[in-house]
TrEMBL record, chain A:
PROSITE patterns reported in the protein's UniProt record: ABC_TRANSPORTER_2
One GO term describing the cellular component: plasma membrane
Name of this chain's protein: Branched-chain amino acid transport ATP-binding protein LivG
Coiled-coil boundaries: none
Species this protein is from: Nocardioides simplex (Arthrobacter simplex)
UniProt xrefs under Pfam families: ABC_tran, BCA_ABC_TP_C
Superkingdom of the organism of origin: Bacteria
Keyword terms of this UniProt record: ATP-binding, Nucleotide-binding, Transport
TrEMBL record, chain B:
GO molecular function, one term: branched-chain amino acid transmembrane transporter activity
GO process terms (BP): amino acid transport
The protein, known as: ABC transporter permease
Lipid bilayer topology: Multi-pass membrane protein
Keywords: Amino-acid transport, Cell membrane, Membrane, Transmembrane, Transmembrane helix, Transport
Residues passing through the membrane, by range: 6-27, 34-53, 59-80, 92-115, 140-160, 189-208, 240-259, 271-289, 309-326, 332-350, 381-399, 455-473, 504-524, 536-564, 576-592
Main localization (coarse): membrane
Family that this chain belongs to: Belongs to the binding-protein-dependent transport system permease family. LivHM subfamily.
UniProt GO cellular component terms: plasma membrane
InterPro entries assigned to the protein according to its UniProt record, in alphabetical order: ABC_transp_permease (IPR001851), BCAA_transport_permease (IPR052157), LivM-like (IPR043428)
Protein location: Cell membrane
Length: 260, 665
């Protein structure tokens, strides 16, 4: 069984169905991509997995247990960690203290008095934000803040890592380094589930990709299969290679990434 | 059976008036996310305006109604939305609460200033007219109330479901940002809901005045009835709010009919709304964590430990001199200031660090005072008892709200403060009705601190120790956690923090500090009674704490001193008594957006002076002073190091300081 199983999940807000019968998995040692156009329901899926949003229907299974009714903090204690698309850094704390708080929450009262500096400094080094350690978290660039959220999340030793658009705001070199870090994390046994718009990154590092459109999973598979899937092309571009004479008006980087 | 029917029917009429008021509250809250604690106070003010029009100016009733409900109230609502509460909905809940509490206090002051206390009567509509239904006499006023409620319900339904702007109002409940994207005008929607909301507050107030009388406080407290009713609909659903209001009205009416007219139980009648509120809060489902970081919180700089100790020592020395110099009756005033300052320290922890609001902090001081007064020969152990009992009561208040958000906690505390003020403190096991309890001075290791001067100095010492303890806590893991929870509850949740118990603990700790202050206060006074711990006092404590700075212990010290001076100023110029409330209330409205308050401005001035003057001084005195010594003298108790003061770095230079100023500014 996979580490995480999202089973037939439906989320409705009033009359709008944000997620419709989504079923997918993420497993240890793998990087799984969750892609789709804006408003496809990717972040809502993350909220359902972490417990911030109760699904209207369906189940979330984690380590072979039904965690659908579990509160947010309990899932986190069992190793579900995430970053946020709209940043949720602790703005009035320093970057270092952001990571330290995570460490202290994870370790409980015992960690409050222990000397854990080395761990925290190592984490800051690992994601490459050591230079910002003393800055207030609300004063650093967006890309750096995303890395901070990753470092903070890693401080709580997650088994399942949910990353919501982690690379936006990073430049090319930083994105490359970030991709390598993800591969490392997966190699260490972590299950990484990532919502991402940078198709080079997604196609480069993911073992499996699920495509969401209007709340529904329209395709799942390895990057190569996803790239050539006509349904995916239609969702992203409004047409596929099969369709004739359709106009190209979508995000060009996505087009190139998906079709190249 | 006949009387049951009669009481139910009568309850329906009061419930109808509550429904009118509550629907206004729900309308403003849902569309702008600003919970207007001053809703009842607006009703009160406008009832006075209506009285003024009809009784003093001789305007015909119908014209006065049209003027108040159609012109004055909507104009006030528009004005308040435009210039006071606009944008508050996106900020922290605590800021919106403080601002509207400021409005509440300011409006009471304004009413007292414009219409000084004297007996005023506002007769019911068509007074004397009525009909007999069975054995029950129904007055025309009651019938009009019911008709008005039905009219409001139908009117709101049509507005929200059949008009364009109504659809926009409903949309702004779900997502104001999205509404803007789709071409809606959230500002117009907000202005309209506040205009209607305040108008409904006025109508409710005018209809209820013959029942609760034209009184500054009674009408203001109707907000508790309103939000108790609205909670049934989770502060969102109008139909459920109407149902809640009717249920509350009937419950109150039945209480009038069936509760004994004397004894302890009889005192429960005025607090039915508060009890109703707690009952609903307990039954409410778990609230979802809201994603969306609260922005724009700037924390006052944290002083280094060395500086804190230095400032504490200076304060103790100054207090020692002052206490031994001033007249004997003024010594006690310093003790009162220390009490207030300690209660405000409890708010530094709860509001300044934790981002939660309590409208009952002085009530917890009352619990501490009560516990202390019950002890014979109180010693330090007894003082600890006072703090522990207050902390326990605080935990009891926070427990039912465990699963809900900060707004519900704040609303519950106000209901709790009124409950304690009107019932518990007046009960026979407490201070007794209009009674007082004697409290002995504190003894330490068998030595009784009998002299006023020594006792007051001990209180100042207690303040200093508490303040230092708070600063140590703020520096450590707990302090970081508090700030983290305030900045992003959802991130804390996804990192594995169970915030529910943490919040109860925080609230209990804060109540305990207030209880400790209350115990010391009882010893200072010698006799304490229920009149010392009125719920209104808690509102003033909160406002002055925020005005002077709820994020720093310096703010607590300044705020405590100011609150001690307030009654003295009022006594010296009684004609301006109401004006003081106006100044405090509207001062909080102006300053409430910055919880760092005046204290932080002081720090900034001190640092500015330090940065401008110190370099020059340094050059001149370089040979005389060690490096950094010139600056330390000029900065007033605060060091620039924000959140990274792990170690005291003497003479860190102007670099980090200047950076912090930039950020704070």
């Amino acid at each position: 069984m996979a580490l995480l199983e999202v089973d037939d999940v439906v989320v409705r807000f009033g009359g709008v169905t944000a997620v419709n019968r989504a079923t997918f998995t993420a497993d240890r040692g793998q990087i799984t991509g969750l892609i789709g156009p804006n408003g496809a329901g990717k972040t809502t899926c993350f909220n359902v997995i972490t417990g911030l949003q109760r699904p209207t229907k369906g189940k979330v299974r984690y380590r072979e247990r039904d965690v659908t009714g579990w509160p947010v903090h309990k899932r986190a204690k069992h190793g579900v960690g995430r970053t946020f698309q709209r940043l949720e850094a602790f703005g009035s704390l320093s970057v270092r203290d952001n990571v330290r708080v995570a460490h202290e929450i994870h370790g409980g009262p015992l960690a409050w008095f222990g000397r854990s500096r080395t761990n925290i400094e190592a984490l800051l080094d690992r994601v490459g934000i050591r230079d910002y350690a003393d800055e207030r978290a609300d004063s650093i660039p967006t890309g750096t803040a995303r890395l901070l959220e990753l470092a903070r999340c890693l401080a709580s030793d997650p088994k399942l890592l949910l990353l919501d658009e982690p690379s936006s705001g990073l430049d090319e070199t930083e994105t490359d380094a970030f991709g390598e870090l993800l591969v490392e994390l997966a190699a260490e046994g972590c299950a990484v589930l990532m919502v991402e718009h940078d198709m080079d990154l997604v196609m480069g590092v993911c073992d499996e990709i699920h495509v969401l459109d209007f709340g529904e999973i329209i395709a799942s598979g390895a990057p190569a299969a996803i790239r050539s899937d006509p349904k995916v092309q239609r969702a992203y571009l409004g047409y596929s290679d099969d369709d004739a004479d359709a106009g190209r008006d979508s995000d060009t980087s996505v087009i190139e990434a998906v079709t190249s | 059976m006949g009387s049951l029917f009669a009481f139910t029917l009568l309850g329906l009429f009061t419930g109808a008036a509550y429904a009118i008021m509550a629907s206004g509250l729900v309308l403003t809250y849902t569309t702008t996310r600003v919970f207007n604690i001053a809703h009842g106070a607006f009703g009160m003010l406008l009832s006075f305006v209506f009285w003024d029009f009809t009784q003093r100016q001789g305007v015909p009733t119908w014209l006065a109604l049209v003027l108040v409900l159609g012109v004055v109230a909507p104009a006030i609502g528009w004005f308040i939305q435009r210039f006071v509460t606009r944008g508050l909905g996106e900020g922290p809940v605590s800021v919106a609460l403080v601002v509207t509490v400021g409005l509440l206090v300011g409006l009471i002051g304004l009413a007292q200033q414009l219409w000084p206390p004297e007996p005023r009567v506002l007769l019911p509509f068509y007074s004397g007219t009525g009909w007999k239904v069975g054995d029950t006499f129904i007055t025309a006023h009651q019938l009009i109330t019911l008709v008005c409620a039905v009219g409001v319900a139908v009117g709101l339904y049509l507005l929200l479901n059949r008009t364009r702007i109504g659809t926009a109002m409903r949309a702004s409940v779900d997502n104001p940002e999205l509404l803007k994207l789709f071409g809606g005008k959230p500002d117009r929607v907000a202005a309209l809901s506040w205009a209607i909301g305040i108008s409904l507050a006025a109508l409710g107030g005018i209809l209820l005045t013959p029942v609760v009388l034209l009184d500054y406080y009674a009408l203001t407290l109707l907000v508790i009835n309103a939000y108790a009713a609205a909670m049934l609909g989770r502060l969102k659903s109008l139909p459920m709010t109407f149902a809640g209001a009717m249920a509350l009205g009937i419950l109150e009416s039945l209480a009038v009919g069936y509760l004994p007219t004397d004894g302890f139980l009889s005192s429960f009648r005025p607090v039915i709304p508060a009890l109703f509120l707690f009952a609903i809060v307990v039954l409410m489902p778990q609230a979802q964590l809201r994603i969306g970081q609260v922005k724009g919180i700037v924390t006052a700089p944290l002083p280094t430990m060395r500086k804190s100790l230095g400032s504490g020592a200076v304060l103790l020395a100054v207090a020692f001199v002052v206490i031994n110099v001033v007249a004997p009756n003024q010594v006690l005033l310093i003790g009162v200031a220390a009490t207030y300052a300690m209660v405000m320290l409890s708010l530094v922890l709860l509001t300044g660090y934790g981002g939660h609001v309590s409208l009952a902090q002085f009530t917890f001081a009352g619990v501490g005072a009560l516990t202390y007064a019950k002890l014979d020969e109180p010693n330090l152990f007894g003082l600890a008892m006072a703090a522990l009992v207050a902390a326990g009561v605080g935990a009891l208040v926070a427990l039912p709200v465990l699963r809900l958000t900060g707004l519900y906690l704040a609303l519950s505390t106000m209901a709790f403060a009124v409950l304690m003020d009107k019932v518990v403190f007046n009960a026979d096991f407490a201070f007794k009705f209009n009674g007082t309890l004697a409290a002995d001075r504190l003894s330490i290791l068998g030595v009784r601190i009998g002299k006023d001067t020594s006792y007051v100095w001990f209180m100042v010492l207690a303040f200093v120790l508490l303040a230092l303890a708070l600063l140590v806590l703020r520096r450590g893991a707990l302090g970081r956690l508090l700030i983290a929870m305030r900045d992003s509850p959802s991130a804390c949740g996804t990192l594995g923090l169970d915030m529910r118990w943490f919040r109860v603990g925080l609230f209990a700790l804060s109540a305990g500090i207030a209880g400790l202050a209350g115990g010391l206060f009882a010893g200072l006074r010698g006799t304490v009674g229920a009149a010392d711990f009125l719920y209104f006092q808690s509102l003033l404590v909160l406002l002055l704490a925020v005005v002077f700075g709820a994020t720093s212990v310096t703010g607590a010290l300044l705020g405590g001193t100011a609150l001690m001076l307030l009654p003295e100023l009022q006594a010296s110029s009684p004609q301006l008594a109401g004006l003081m409330f106006v100044v405090i209330g509207f001062g909080a409205v102006l300053l409430g957006r910055d919880p760092n308050g005046l204290a932080n401005h002081l720090f900034k001035v001190a640092r500015w002076v330090g940065d401008r003057v110190a370099p020059g001084l340094d050059e001149r005195l370089q040979s005389l002073l060690p490096r950094g010594g010139g600056r330390a003298g000029s900065a007033d108790g605060a060091d620039g190091a924000v959140d990274v003061p792990l170690v005291d770095v003497p003479g860190a230079g102007a670099g980090p300081d200047a950076r912090v100023i930039e950020k704070v500014v």
